Amino acid sequence: MFTETNGVIATINKGQTVVTAIQEVGSNSVKGELSDEKLQESYLHVTCRNLRSSDSGKYFCGAHVIGSDGRVERLNEMVTVKVKLPTFEDLVNVIQKLLIQANDDREIQQDNTQNIKSIQNELRNNQDNVIKMYKDLDNHEQNFIRIKKDLDSNQQNIKIINQDLDNQKQNIIRINTNMDSKEQEFTKFNKDLDSKQQNIRIDKDLNATKHNITRINKDIDSKQQDIISIKQDLESSKKDFNEHRQNISIFKDMLDTVIYNLSSSLTDVKQELTNGNANKIRSFYIFYSSYIF
């Protein structure tokens, strides 16, 4: 926006705020916005106050736009402004407005006077409160001094307590050391106890083994008795066998004798048969039959 006498008044570009070109137009008097939305209008609005006759003239507003089809266009509008001198009626209207404004200001002044009185009363009350607060501060200061003394005393007590704590820590360290030693002794005792228990189990195993050995010895004694009995039976059987063998030998000798005698007799019988002596053969048969059986 610009004039033919004063030049550019204000400009607005896409992505930028409003820029004013002359000091007479303040930033509060210039408003504007550019939008790409079809339903939202773009505008640049300038408000001028207290115009002079030199402000009369032509005012131009130009805009560079891009249409929906991509074409670039420049739009221009112009308005003629003529500033006139005020008339008597204008002065009367202004005086009336000033009187109304004066009455309003008088009422405002009365309200302000009342407010000032109220503020003065509040100040007096606040002053009393401040005096009271000072007294309270003095009391608090005395309390603070007493508290500080108590803190100093407590710090001394804390130092004593810290010393006691250090002593207790040393005692705890010594107790922990003793506990470690006791724990080692307890571990050694447990190992010794395990060894003793192992020895007790070995003794039990030895007792069981001794009992088994005793039972085995008894079994051996019993087996030895059985062996002795078997040996005795074998000796008896051997003796009986020897007796039977002797009897068999005697029987064999007798049998050999009988066979020899029988052979001799058979020879004699054969001879007698040859000689025809039957009675003698019959008596021989009877004799040997009774001898054999």
TrEMBL record:
Keyword Coiled coil found: yes
Top-level taxon: Eukaryota
Keywords of this entry: Coiled coil
Database matches in Gene3D superfamilies: 6.10.250.3110, Immunoglobulins (2.60.40.10)
SUPFAM superfamilies assigned: Tropomyosin (SSF57997)
Coiled coil: 137-199
Protein name: Uncharacterized protein LOC129922564
Species of provenance: Biomphalaria glabrata (Bloodfluke planorb)
Protein's gene: LOC129922564
